[in-house]
Amino acid sequence: MSDESQTGQAGGVPDGVRGYGSGGVSTVISVEDVAREAKKIAEEGPTVVALEGLAKNDAFLTINDLRAGYGKMEILHDFNLRIAKGQSLCLIGPNGAGKSTVLHSIFGFTNIFGGSIVAGGQDVTALSPQQKLKNAGIAYILQEKSVFPGMTVEENLLMGGFLKDSVDQAREATERVFQKYDRLAERRNKPAGVLSGGERRLLEISRALVMEPEILLVDEPSIGLEPRFIDMVFEILDDLQRVEGKTIVMVEQNAKKGLEFADIGYVLVSGETALAGTGDELLQNPEVGRLFLGG
């Protein structure tokens, strides 16, 4: 029997194994084992005082004891989050940990069973997604394939301004995007469907910017992209944070890339925060490395 047939596929990864490891068989760990072992990292999650410290004791976005989910199913259990204005926070953890549910809850896509969400001093817990975008400055950047391929780049951007008070305001905001990103300006009359993967991701991010938000919720920015485009997307996000002062909350399956980018990292397990620290601290944590960084 060949080596490949013994392992199930080329590269030495057994059939049915799904997980975060990127090395050989000895370093691959299943999603189920990741979730099980991640629970052992900390007997109890970080205190609210610790989370406040990571946010420089000046939180701009605050989640307090949030219980949220879909239908009657509770996914997040007494979840807390703190991030200061102009900071970035990356959520990592095993599949099903509730990472995207955090973003969905902030933006209004879940049922809230308890707790609160406060942005810029405003309680936004019960606001609709439209109200959060227009009145609270919170924008959600979806995962891949959210552009309208048959519409031009300019038309896609104008769609991002649908809550502006007038078409003229939407056009003015669109022009500001074109001034910032030459790559899009050069393709303003081209169908979005002809853009490269990196350009489409740039368009998705830029469409959210038309409403001039303060908080960006970014779901899997690297998903489906070639490595050369991944670096470009993170450079764009870095510019939005460092230069424009945007507050960024991100879910990123590429845990190493996400933690390298972010000021703060949370490790979620079963709807709760098992660990929190600076991005660098979590990168250096051997257990986080073993479970989420491929060794």
Describe the fold and architecture.
α6 (153-160) packs across α7 (167-180). The protein is of the alpha/beta class. It contains 13 helices and ten strands. The chain folds into two domains: 1-33, no CATH class; 39-56 and 84-111 and 125-292, 3-Layer(aba) Sandwich (Rossmann fold), CATH 3.40.50. A hairpin with a 2-residue loop joins β9 (264-269) and β10. The longest helix has 16 residues, at 227-242. It starts with a helix and ends with a helix.
What is the element layout, followed by pairings?
Elements: H1 3-7, H2 31-38, H3 48-54, E1 59-70, E2 73-84, E3 88-92, H4 99-107, E4 111-119, E5 122-123, H5 129-135, E6 138-141, H6 153-160, H7 167-180, H8 182-185, H9 197-209, E7 215-219, H10 227-242, E8 247-251, H11 255-261, E9 264-269, E10 272-278, H12 279-284, H13 286-292
Parallel strand pairs: 3-8, 3-9, 6-7, 7-8
Antiparallel strand pairs: 1-2, 1-4, 4-5, 9-10
